[in-house]
Amino acid sequence: MAESRTRIRDASRRSWAEPWKVKMVEPARWTTRDYREKCIREAGYNTFLLRSEDVYIDLLTDSGTSAMSDSQWAGLMLGDEAYAGSRNFYHLEENVRKYYGYQYVVPTHQGRGAEHLVSQVYIKQGDYVPGNMYFTTTRIHQELAGGTFVDVIVDEAHDPQSEHPFKGNVDLDKLEDLIQEVGSERVPYVSLAATVNMAGGQPVSMANARAVRELCDGYGIPVLLDATRAIENAYFIRQREEGYRGKKVAEILLEFCSYTHGCWMSAKKDTLVNIGGWLALNDQAKFDDARNLVVVYEGLHTYGGLAGRDLEAMARGIEESVDDDHIRARVGQVEYLGNKLLGWGVPLVVPIGGHAVFLDARRFYPHIPQDRFPAQRLAAEIYLEAGVRTMERGILSAGRDPATGDHRYPKLELVRVTIPRRVYTQAHMDVTAEAIEEVWWRAGEAKGLRLVYEPKYLRFFQARLEPAE
Length: 469
Ligand SMILES: *Cc1c(COP(=O)(O)O)cnc(C)c1O
Description:
Elements: H1 33-42, E1 57-58, H2 70-76, H3 87-99, E2 104-108, H4 111-122, E3 128-131, H5 136-144, E4 148-151, H6 172-182, E5 190-193, H7 206-219, E6 223-226, H8 230-240, H9 249-258, E7 262-266, E8 277-281, H10 284-297, H11 308-321, H12 324-343, E9 356-360, H13 361-364, H14 374-386, E10 388-389, E11 391-393, H15 395-398, E12 414-418, H16 426-441, E13 449-453, E14 464-467
Helix pairs in contact: 1-14, 2-11, 3-11, 4-5, 4-10, 8-9, 12-16, 14-16
């Protein structure tokens, strides 16, 4: 009997599913297009100014939006809310040492708290801070401390269509040229991000991290890591770099961090918590300075602006975040959405990033000039179409040049469709993909926007816009 049957399923393909099941749900509300028209107008065409309850699928950010596990929720009940010396701090410190490999840990309320400390401790007025593409909050703290950020990422990072597997890499020639030009004493550290958010969630190779370290050792310059999505970076190294295939993501992470002298961390991303961050350093003198400063800005050095329970959720989140099945499902869901859109010809940044799919607004709206905010318009259109919230990563996010006051015109004009961890199902991805394809199909009709209110710092969070004509 068996011989006469024809197999219909493609037996070479075996699917995998998320390594968790849902225990609690939060309702999400579908709205009408008329209602959404009113909402986006009232929000000044800025998706940051929408109310969350008016959003159906919230892909604004992966920051603080993860679903915590039952173990993390149980950990909240074990919060030791002592002002000083909470046992949860020591658990966090132990796990940062074990999984990231740094010696000294300062907790902070979130990533920018750590960015503030590290910038104040390392940077002097007139310094230059080279990095593999700017990040909004990272750069503003470097500038407020008196530094000038200099982009030394490889050229491929600025090309949304380049298939380079490690578009987050530092261009070693650009880095060395800068050091030669300004002198190593004016370069307090190299600001290395993994993965690179603004380039589209693109990874840095292990070979590149090793080479950056070697180069910097020659000049006595430390390398500091923005470790916010370093685990996603480690996963990409395993997938794409020779020699790492069979390794555990946890091992790769540890090796990667070993090429750096410390890190700052937004635990709201990789670490699967709703709030938290840390600064970790190997240099004891710099740690002493940071630990002193944290008392001024965040709280005592064993809580850093967090409750004991938050520290416990972070300590447990670190362990879960390096699990191989977790990270495969996390990046795999982003890939699923990206591949669906690519299959329909929607213009995206390739390769698909680790935390988000980045839509190429220049190719959606070639008829809208960059100073008419094409990516901002695209994010508004996606919301109007299906109540899906995304975020602009283009000229509005890039802000103004502090010296000239002009817009900075980034090569990349993108919309980030960011996937929270462990929150949405494949069906949510399907609804999102169909809405984006619909907007792509009608792209010729869209018009630009103009600013009506612009705050001084990190303007994209609070700016208000209106249709340009
Ligand atoms: C989110 C983020 C930060 C800042 O962290 P917050 O927790 O939002 O303050 C820094 N670097 C990168 C790459 C980020 O994505």
